[in-house]
Amino acid sequence: MRRGAQPPPRGRALEEVNFAKKILLVGDGAVGKTSLVRRFVHDLFSDRYIVTIGTKTSRKALKLEYDAEDLSVNLQLGIWDILGQKEGARAHELYFKGADGAILVCDLTRPETLASVPEWSKRVEALCGKLPAVLVANKQDAKDERKVGDEEVAEVAKGLGVSWFQASAKTGLNVEAFFHEVGSLLCASLVVKHIEAREAAAAGQGSKKGLGRRAGRSKP
Ligand code: GDP
Ligand code: MG
Known about the structure:
35% of the residues lie in helices and 26% in strands.
């Protein structure tokens, strides 16, 4: 049996939906936030950088497949790279506004950057409420200068209830992986809602109808 030659089961077709989300990168200065975004955005083409005072905003589309649900999500990520340090708290209010998720970044060569991760998390929570987040321990490649152990990062991640990744903007290690993780966290509840709406529509209108409607948010 050739796949694709058969009609989809139970009247289903592969459906595409579009979501747009805003994510923040936060963490102390020089942990590698800008480098991680650059690595992520440039590796897969949409390298649009809009430089504004105090912030860099990049966009990149992620495709997330939910095979079991015959659903394909195009997630347009707006990635906000916070410039500067903790002192810039006033400015933070503006660019944290409307964020849907956060990437907390620390540097494996500087323990103090891990120590301030909970403060960054609190600041995000104070301005945006509790957001889906991941913790990224960057500069994994700098093995000789490493001063933070896995257990210490894991401990902080556990305290915050987030998953964590070792990463390197330099080698690209895990950069795709943690952006995908945050992307799927952001989509999870929208996908559930979408599927529920689709099933309700199908139940109400017969199994062949109601599949093409768009649910969730579209472009901003
Ligand atoms: P930001 O202030 O958090 O945006 O940090 P930057 O991206 O500007 O990076 C600060 C410094 O760390 C720069 O000199 C980068 O070249 C360096 N850097 C960033 N990521 C990595 C990495 O993964 N490995 C190494 N070895 N250096 C990195
Ligand atoms: Mg930067």
